[in-house]
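step 3/5: co-fold with zinc ion
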Amino acid sequence: MKTYCQSCMMPFSKDTGVRENENYCSLCFKDGKLCYEGNDLKEFQNICYESMRKSGMGKLKAKFFTFMIRFAPRWKN
Ligand SMILES: [Zn+2]
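step 4/5: write tokens
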């Protein structure tokens, strides 16, 4: 059983939305598919950073979580 999102590392316990997929959080996986389907980690990080800032998260915190994304299973080579 996974306890965090395989795409963005967000712990499912922090996920406030309705999760559709057991591997991904409600932000990464919506309406039956991944919201970002590309393979560009940098691009994905930018999208996450922007959405975290929009949701009211502080700069440092958002930067830290954005940095952590690189360690998610989805982005491992
Ligand atoms: Zn996610």
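step 5/5: annotate
The chain has a mean pLDDT of 95.
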